[in-house]
Amino acid sequence: MAGLNQAFIVLVLRFVQAILALIVLGLTAYVANWWSHFWHAISPSQFNFLIFASVWTLVPALLFLIHVPWRFSETRAHHKFVILGVEALTMLFWFAGFLALSVFLSDRVCFGHVCSAGRAAAVFAAFEWLAWAGTMAMAVMHVLRTRGHTSNGGKADPNLNMHEGA
């Protein structure tokens, strides 16, 4: 029963991560589009990086982290260290993104709808980082809890037969 509750919690967190990524994608794309048209220059890299982090979250990261444990839980694709790596990488992307955008916006004279959208993007990106930190903490706890266990549930490999005297 506890495993089912944890799986449900992770699925809810994945849904929250997807919604937050869509919100950040919309806000940062709006600011980047406005910046490009108003200033006739490329938008700041902080907004572009959060667009990348949103797309990374929605396409490879969440697709892998939802689909593989659900459909391929008995294969080598479902490896705890790969999942931990994807979690950690995505969490670092969001941490770097919201921090860079917050620093960028902190020393600017900023007003209007575009500025509000940029600030909202930084806030939602911070919440996204917290959501990824939560799922990464769960992944770390899983790795530590299953340390020393084999991938087949602790059963001996039938292909490794030991003969007496060997």
TrEMBL record:
The record gives the membrane topology as: Multi-pass membrane protein
Task: Tell me the domain of life.
Answer: Eukaryota
Leader peptide range in chain numbering:
none
Broad class of the protein's primary localization = membrane
Query: Could you tell me what this protein is called?
Result: MARVEL domain-containing protein
Where does it reside?
Answer: Membrane
List keywords of the entry alphabetically: Membrane, Transmembrane, Transmembrane helix
- Give TM segment ranges: 7-35, 47-69, 81-105, 117-141
Xref: Pfam families = MARVEL
MARVEL domain sequence ranges: 10-137
Q: Choose one Gene Ontology CC annotation of this protein and give it.
A: membrane
Task: Say if the entry is tagged with keyword Membrane.
Answer: yes
